Amino acid sequence: MGTGRNARCFIDALAERIKAENLNIIGVPTSEGSKKYGIEKGIKIKELNEIDLNIGVDIDVDGADQVAGDFSLIKGYGGALTREKVIAKAAKKFIVVVDETKISETKNLNKPVPVEVIPFAVNYVKNVLEKKYNATCDMMKKKDKDEILSTDNGNFIILANFGEISNPEELEDELNLISGVVENGIFAKRKPDVLITGRESGVEILERKK
Known about the structure:
- By secondary structure, the protein is an alpha/beta fold.
- It is built from 5 helices and 13 strands.
- It has a 4-stranded mixed sheet with strand order 3-6-12-13.
């Protein structure tokens, strides 16, 4: 169960089907917010550590903040990027639901990338991003507040603007090698298997070629 507005729409629909069809489904949330919302909707919840990963997570349904032409993503504006990436990698099938405004007009990723960092290393990581990549960095704040957001993992998030990202897989790997970085919001190593896009003309469903 993903995090964000589109993920909540999925949770609503899932809860309705579980109730109407008496389905035996267990939800694995990517954030404390999704966990609370799922429980309120009557969905059975388990943490990822309670799941037998030899069996695995069947389906992960989540949103995205930007989608490139090759299905690479930027995720994490809701502050849950680390748990989102772990569950996406643990899932047999990864489905992303977005509206058409999230599709990159240039076909490449170009929005700021969330980078989750341990609090001790914030200034160090910002310095590396600014000097090595010429990135513009800002701290992620709580919605409608001037207070720095603390993730469910107790960390902070730097929003790093790299401009046009020509090689998202390479950048995803490089960012995670910086000491103090926990994870980043580029999803190029684990792209969605299915992309569902809501457009004015209707719903578009695309499957990634493997």
